[in-house]
Amino acid sequence: MTVIHPNMADEGAKIHARDVCVFYGDKKAIDNVSLDISPDYVTAFIGPSGCGKSTFLRCFNRMNDTIGAAKVTGLIELDGEDIHGPNMDVVQLRARVGMVFQKPNPFPKSIYENIAYGPKIHGLAEKKADLDVIVERSLTRAGLWDEVKDRLDDSGTALSGGQQQRLCIARAIAVDPEVILMDEPASALDPIATAKIEELIDDLSGRYAIVIVTHSMQQAARVSQRTAFFHLGKMVEYGPTSEIFTNPIEERTKDYITGRYG
Amino acid sequence: MAEHTVKAFDEDITRLRGLIAEMGGLAEVAIAESLDALVRGDEALAEHVIARDKRIDALETEVDKLAVRIIALRAPMADDLREVIAALKIGGVLERIGDYSKNIAKRVGMIEGRARFEPLTLLPTMGELAGEMVHDVLTAYAARDPDLAREVIATDAKVDGFYNSIFRNLVSYMVENPSTISSAAQLLFVARNIERIGDHATNVAEMVHFAATGAYPPEGDR
Amino acid sequence: MSSIPVSGSGAAAKQPVGPTRTAAFEKRLASRYRAERNFKLVGLGAVIFSVAVLVFLLGNMAVNGVAGFQRAELAVTIDFPASGITGDATSLTAPSAGQTLEMQGLPDVVTLSAEQQLGKDAAAQLSPAAWRDVAAALAEDPGLVDRTATLHLPVNSALAAGLEGEGSAETQALAKKLAAQGKLARNWDWGFLARSDATAPQSVGIWGALKGSMLTMLVTLVLAFPIGVLSALYLEEYAPRNRWTDIIEVSISNLAAVPSIIFGLLGLAVFLALFPNLRSAPLIGGMTLALMTMPVIVISGRNAIKAVPPSIRDGALAIGASPVQVVFHHVLPLALPGMLTGTIIGMARALGETAPLLLIGMRIFVATPPEGFASPATVLPMQIFLWSDEIDRGFVERTSAAIIVLLVFLLAMNGLAIYLRNKFEKRW
User: Does any CB of chain C come closer than 8 Å to the CB of residue B69?
Assistant: First the structure.
């Protein structure tokens, strides 16, 4: 039984999901989840390991397509367009819905090439001058420009973990997405780098719809305005973050966030 | 309610609740003993009450420290968080209740010729009622029972009623017996203290309700 | 994780510290150290042994082969204008120059000159193909035909052996006499690297086989590398995981283990049937060896592709790269070092293969270097095999010299591949 908190203002749905199920072979990983992602807020998915929050996140940019045994049913719409429909090109979808992964994965190229790759393959810029602009803008928005502007030709993998993750975020921003999906973006980072990422999420939330999966409830509490709690493939509760963490409605949610789970 | 996965968290919460329970018990005893001392003019008992108030103060400090540590180290959420905040506030309130009882005890030596005081017989009843409120609200706290808390809040009206009648009684007594004004005035203060104790018990009840349900009791109850 | 202490709680009583280094412990410690030391020594011993064997082999080869780069030569002065040999730049450098000069009587001129200067005995010891060297010298410098020149001409095996102190007593005495006169000496024979096969060991060269090997390797590389790499990419990235792909995977692994002579049979049956007049051509040889090398490239290519972390793929996919772009922009560059390693291994094996080429006829006697991919040729290992079969003693050193050339070629090829691999190696 899913509880969706009342009194959430009619925020419009950037991503609308209805009755989404994900099967890995015979195993049902996501069981009839319906929710709307607001364009104005940061939405957090929390839940214990294996509850399906990452799997559900990956439905939004059809990354589950890359896993042979995975099957997705149900409706997912981006701005009202069915993302599994015949008119939706997966490559285009992934440019509109960017993703940042748990372990920073910069390409083994230079910092400049890392950022410039996306715009190049999507035809957003051809000339070097245009690419320079995009690279600078993306790195500035990611809060990395000052640190790397003198060494854009250095390898992306030579940066520290926190810088690499910000590089990956800059890379995602460079193709001008509408939504950014983040799968536990700070779990591999130390507290200072984590704080910088959270600050960055704050900065970006005005411009992009952000969905973040996190296993740290404190992080979800700090960073998001809407929180959805997942348990065993079902969404149990979805509501404003402040209410979820001070006075949740569902017993299972309360048990999880107070540490009585398991 | 299920236990925390980290058992030490449960232990901390239990200790916090234990401290509150201990404070509450001492406060109850202080109310009863201070009024007993007042009625019988037992100055030794009054000294005892005054001395034991230090223990209540010490417990309040412990509650403060423990609550702050739990917040810093355990990052409590939802009902745990409300529980800790409530304990913090209740500790402060119980300490003030203890102070009122101490205040009553201090006035024991200032009252002369008590056998003649008719109003003196009303005070113990009022004090008992206030003591019951404190007892009930602590029971509600231990049981996390919002309904019992609301009943306690309702009882405050009676205590207020008592205060009003004692006030009128004493004023008319003072008018008839001007020589007893100084002692009667002390009794006025005692009555006021007991009425304040009732109000504070109501505060505690509100916190208990908040900790249990996440909301304060509706306005109509006050 | 203990409860938060509020007021000073005493620390738990400490356990008494007992002695840790008991006698039993010391014994175990000593035996552990001993085991580690022995392991290191055994390892070191294995390495030293391998290096020693390698040094011995290479040293042996070098010592024997050095002699192969030399030959015994007689200094003969030929007066060209007086000899009646005529020609000009065109006729002397033409491909048929040899035949022209032979018709003009160059062999006799050479023999006559030698007899005049060194005596009949010495002249008789000249290599029968000595005149070809004169023709080669004329082709190199046509102006020679108007002058008198002293040329160093090869002798036959008997006199060469005599110079070394072997053979009949007369030959030895003759050799000694000529050497004392300064007419007979062992010189460095750089022509060895420019000539092709011949009947006399003094006149053989390795260039024909070397060029044949180069052409064959080129064909092998051009065929095996792209097909192998693309097959590996398809099998790893696109092929569905089902029974058929499993069968293909097993088949490829087995192919890599098939004896090379089977590929020769295949080449004979298929390629020569298709192109019957290209027998012993580098094209056919290359195709056969490509068949043999491809499975190795596919297997190492697949492993290299499997080693590319999925995080790179995910990152590329998430940014909106199509599957083809992911493969060619990200996977292939990272897998290239591994693929090049597999290619090195495969090509090294192909370079040294003789058996499959036997069956397709590349064991012929080829006196001139191959002109193109379709002309008859032989390869280095085959040449070595053929020479080692010869009776003439002079061929022994030539064989060793040819082995040295083969090894140098192999090292050069490997060096190039290692350089390319290091250039593409990227850390991730």
Answer: yes
